[in-house]
């Protein structure tokens, strides 16, 4: 920018006559020529850039289209493979069942099989063909949800029989292997799971997805009469319904199944038939061409932008000389203001990113750079209680402390709010990071006299290391921020070094949060019931309602994953009330057995909990004396008056209160004496340590004695062995539940447990 000004004296040193006219007439003309030349040069550069951009856009559009087609091929192929795997889920509920073995292997109950297998699969999953195949051949057939006599039913023996024989052979091999590894006795129940096979093939000349599974007992109460169990077979033709599911999942456009390769204007993949010798078929669809579409959309804008840039360049160059001096004078001031945080005096985010980018270029095998992301704990409480002015003074004090940290090559910066990023060169990664983190946390937690008060805060630190975790500045800070969340989850006041699992956990939690909202809205959740038994292990005295989430693509998601997310996002109350409503509606006709429903401590923070529970009981007609609300110990911990008030109101309604997971948290005799609970549930951790730890047995004995002295019922959770059950009977426990006796079951399987209910419950039980 200074070149034109520097050339001005030279214009008057060539021996030309100096007059008034020359500076006025000649000098501006030369300025104009220089300006025109610069404008022309910029214009040529812009034109060349536009041409290059156009060529690049064409190449990029083609590559984007190719990448899009490859991605779609993978997506569609993965979807086809998943659908083959989903058949096992559809068939297992029928095939892995004692009742199914009884009604197929011992005697073929066609009506029962059709109701629970053929018609059920057709109505719920749109399975076109369903068969039960014995060693002698097909014994049952369902065609489009209608039961057919086997001789009249279509059965493509050439396509289906090899798959069935493969299942039978695999089952025999599995049984033989288990007998060889264990005892000579026939493996039973869950020890010998069903064998499943699935694949794409042509059935009746049409492409179809076929699945076959051996019918085996689940609890082992029924033994298959032969070494070759019946095989359940199902067929889904790749028809409009199947393609409609693909459209719903992948948002494909005009999918089509054909026996010939797709034309050039369509994209397709061959159906992955189980037998390579099968005549091929193709799944095709109208492809997306995002690159071509983007290029077509950008081309007019590109031309217009080029013309506009030429005009803007001429104007900018015309006025550039006038602004040069002002820019030069303000550059120093702007530089200072741009890179310093005015509150703390530390480097601001801009300076941090600039310095981090420069230092990342120098890291190598012999040098590492630690990025420590510091988040203050409890700072929001200071702002809320003492005001933002006091909070600003505290941030300034912490900034001064961070500047004085005794590290070489240190850069301390304020990232935003109460967040700071510190750059420290490290050699021995873990030891140096722990030392740096400890020094930072010690500096932060020192008491600070501010505004006549002594304030104390702590901090949590997440750390990434370059180049171990990458060399991109933004990505390193993002990963360090993720590590901060882990530090806070680990109790705060500690340092956590980033690990890939932390990012996976954060992404999964975020996805589950969104999916859980959708699942609640679309009714994806279900209520399962775990029977509770008298101490003899035979009589059923009640059921505990448990929520289950079977995701359409991820399968069964553990409550341990989505319940904490629901509590953090505020969905837990809606979820708990949904479970309570559905459980009460389903259990209304179960006689006098009790129904146990868990409520979160978050529910007791709502002011209308009593009204919500009362309204649900009235709408469902469920007797309150049969309802037992299970709470955890941390609800009582902290002496929360609103929680005690809500519990007292529920008890006045006739609802029983159970203290769940007793002994795992903040158990206190004072809490139990202040607020009498009806039931104590011994935590499964103590039950499962019976016989392995003397402490567990002693604690259970003390809890039972205490409960009996206070006239409180004791239920032991997690009973999984006969030894555990015998010990609980010995010490006088009242009730038990656990997988030894029964696991959680859907409402469709409740009837067999109601038959084992106590006499009082059985006498008054209404039909389901």
From TrEMBL:
Q: Give the keywords, sorted.
A: Membrane, Transmembrane, Transmembrane helix
The UniProt record lists the GGDEF domain at: 367-500
Locate the transmembrane regions by residue number: 38-61, 293-320
Q: Which PROSITE patterns match?
A: EAL, GGDEF
All copies of domain EAL, residue ranges? 509-758
Keyword Plastid (UniProt)? no
On the tree of life, the source organism's domain of life is Bacteria
Keyword Zinc present in the record's keywords: the answer is: no
Q: Which NCBIfam families match?
A: GGDEF
Recorded protein name is Diguanylate cyclase/phosphodiesterase
Instruction: State the organism of origin.
Output: Ancylobacter novellus (strain ATCC 8093 / DSM 506 / JCM 20403 / CCM 1077 / IAM 12100 / NBRC 12443 / NCIMB 10456)
